UniProtKB/TrEMBL annotation:
Transmembrane segments: none annotated. This is Lytic transglycosylase domain-containing protein. SUPFAM superfamilies: Lysozyme-like. It comes from Aequorivita echinoideorum. It holds the Pfam family SLT. InterPro entries: Lysozyme-like_dom_sf, Transglycosylase_SLT_dom_1. Residues 103-207 form the Transglycosylase SLT domain.
Amino acid sequence: MNMLGKIGLATGIFIVCAVSINAVQNAPTDENLEEKLVNDYNVYALPLPEKMDFAGEPVPLENPDIRERMDRELLVNTYWQSNGLLLFKRANKYFPLIEPLLKKYGLPDDFKYLAVAESGLEYTSSPVGASGIWHFMKATGSEYGLEINEYVDERYDLEKATMVAAEYLKKSKAKFGTWTMAAASYNAGVAGMNKQMDRQNTTGYYNLLLNDETSRYVFRILALKEIMTNPKKYGFNFREKDLYQPIPTYKVKVNTPVDDWAEWSKPYGINYKILKLHNPWLRDTYLKNASGKEYYVEIPEKGYYTL
């Protein structure tokens, strides 16, 4: 949504423009297309799945404009190979953390692909200031109770940010009636979706004419779901050892000021960099905590880093 940031980096477009005469002459038949998609480096049109859904809600692929929009996002995200491989690698690290949080807070599992679309599963900040894996704007995060200041930014706390994303999306679902509209409102905002429904006198994401970003948003999520669920079908090949692995951690309670996080980290066998890798919500080298608020700092188990 506009207040939660732009698709931005996560939307990057890679367009393959050149197809050799030989590739055209040897275009695959329906029977051998799937095999060739995996085993050669030519560029082919992609067959759309017969059925698709988001959170159990069907995509009306029988409509020609819907098919074209879906086709576009499948092509863009299939042939942006380097980014695709990075998403698979990061998903192996972060999906095991995100999936139980979605279940805990009452969101369908498909919303993990919304997080992929927003941030590429990186603790990034967009050009307009949307931050964290769920890409909240500062005002939205504060509205939903996240602490955001020069010392702590809980938009970068995966569990707390997932909880807030779930609260926002469930409210949107209650208002609009579908998870698909809730996802679209995450990009365009509740007010933005209401405005377009009133102007166009219709409801439902697939019935609305929307700005380019929001009109592509749900289709990008659907494309990511399709590709990441069926990697070999779309030519992505990797081994388990190629993927990024989650690092076990334990939590340490902090309820006092911390003068120097680098010094604080030493007894745990880590340095400031490693502390920040596991606690990106810490925004400075020290913590003012006059109120005695309780924070829980994640510490990696021993043996995973060499200093």
